[in-house]
Amino acid sequence: MSRNVHLPLFIVLNFLMTALSLMLGHFFIDDDGSWFKPFGRDGAIIFVSFFYVLGQLIIRGSINGIMRHRVKD
Predict the structure, then answer these.
(1) What is the C-alpha radius of gyration for the chain, rounded to an integer number of angstroms?
(2) 19-68 pLDDT, tens per residue?
(3) What is the three-class DSSP state of 68?
(4) Among the listed residues 43, 47, 54, 45, the one whose alpha carbon sits nearest the alpha carbon of residue 10
(5) How far apart are CA 25 and CA 30, in angstroms?
(6) How many Å apart are CA 18 and CA 26, to the nearest integer?
(7) Are the beta carbons of 52 and 42 closer than 8 angstroms?
(8) pTM flag (> 0.85)
(9) How confident is the model at residue 3 (pLDDT cuts 50, 70, 90)?
(10) Which of 22, 24, 18, 13 is nearest to 42 (CA)?
(11) Which H/E stretch holds residue 45?
(12) Angle at which helices 7-28 and 41-72 pack, to 10 degrees?
């Protein structure tokens, strides 16, 4: 499904998802220093969000490449 979404919209939606995650994390997760070492709560949320989006981009690129290759055949 995400391969059909244009890249700028994809980035904006994932940015909004990260902002929402930060807001919900602020309200519902205590900033326990020992649990979120070395980044802190907000850093951990951004760290996980970065790799989540990176994974989506890798899969999206792979699927787009496969689909283009199939169309040429």
Answers:
(1) 16
(2) 999 999 999 988 877 777 788 899 999 999 999 999 999 998 888 888 77
(3) helix
(4) 54
(5) 8
(6) 12
(7) no
(8) no
(9) low
(10) 22
(11) helix 41-72
(12) 150
